[in-house]
Amino acid sequence: MAKAAANSERITSLHYRVTGTVPDKGRLEAEASMHTEPLTMSMKMNATGQGRDEQLEIRFVDEVMYVGGSAVNSEKLDGKSWFSADPAVWGRGAADNNSYGILPRQIEGNPAVQSRILTASKDVRRIGTQTIDGTRTTHYRGTVTSRGIGAARDAAASTAARERHINSLDQFFVLRVEGTLTMDLWIGDDSRTKQFRLQGDTRDTRGGTDGKPLEIIDGDPLDLTITFLDVNQPVTVEAPPSEDTADLAAQMDEAQTS
After folding, report:
1. What is the sign, positive or negative, of the torsion defined by CA atoms of 70, 73, 75, 81?
2. For the domain bounded by 2-257, which CATH number is listed?
3. Concatenated DSSP letters of 198-246
4. Domain segments of the chain: what residues?
5. Are strands 245-247 and 82-85 parallel, antiparallel or unpaired?
6. How far, in Å, CA of 44 to CA of 87, rounded?
């Protein structure tokens, strides 16, 4: 696992698939191609949980995020099909979601982070071998506590890697994972992460306004599988036509002043 984490640090681009459930999003499926530096991405996502059926296409191009698809209300965007927002970043949870609630950080493909988490597990064990999308893999499983996640975050080899891990691993603190996080990791014969699965119970809060006491309640479950389909292949993403794109910040400013 340590070798898989080290190999993952050298990945410059990814093509991956996401399935599962994420708190506040419900059931979702997504497929994405992304380049790490500069951050460039194209993702198509279907969110079907919590009574919704949303189809979204998200692009990161030149530090701008573009969002289109059937879930976008074109009437609120002057009939345009896309909105833009900058900077193009992943949401960091409910407290600081810089993707305007569109793109939960949990679906960011980062095999270095996931491999690093499992190295902090005290009960990791080998489950057996399994073929994932034609690739022979070794399957590992372990559980990690919040303390273990913090230790994994601090154990990154370099300052740059540590900063990336802090941003990615902090998502699990924001989720308020209850107890332990169960993680399955499938590593190929090339010592690269092929797939991982995260499962855990979460907590949420309600009340705290209008004189109501703040309560800690059971949150939505986290059960997410990310499969890596290809690595280090060229990724080309184009911005949508400017004439078919509305600026989200301008729309929000206009709504606040009207």
Report:
1. negative
2. 2.50.20.20
3. EEEEEEEEE--STTPPPEEEE---EEEEEEEEEES------PPPGGGEE
4. 2-257
5. parallel
6. 19
pLDDT of 6 strictly over 90: no
Amino acid at 216: I
What's the rounded Cα separation, in Å, for the pair 65 and 73? 17
Sorted by sequence, the CB contacts under 8 Å of residue 219 that are 6+ apart come out as 23, 175, 176, 178, 201, 202, 203, 204
Between residues 29 and 177, which one has the greater pLDDT? Answer: 29
Token pair in block for residue 212: 């109501």
pLDDT at 239: 95
Neighbour tally for 125: CB within 10 Å: 9
The pTM of this model reads 0.79
pLDDT of 107 higher than 80: no
- Is the per-residue pLDDT at 185 higher than 60? yes
